[in-house]
Predict the 3D structure of the following.
Amino acid sequence: MTPHQPVNPAIPSEESLIQYPSAFPIKVMGPHHEEFVASVVGVVVQHAPDFDAATLERRPSSSGTYLGLTVTVTATSREQLDNIYRALTSLPHVKYVL
């Protein structure tokens, strides 16, 4: 039996393309309703307490069915970003996280 390999193995800070702390935009797509927005903001604030919801950018789809959100967090580590991505992708309404 082989040992479990992490999905995203640790990258030494000198090899990372991101310097921490850093403003890091995360794009999230889901249905165009306020419950979706509230759930995304709730997850982001849980992992990045200094996130200011007033900076949230919204872009509705041309049909108005979907809403693209851009949340910009002050990323302090890859672990923090991985946790945010995992939490966002686990939300039932989220279609994509980039």
Summary: The first helix runs from residue 34 to 47. The chain is about 25% helix and 25% strand. The longest strand covers residues 22-31.
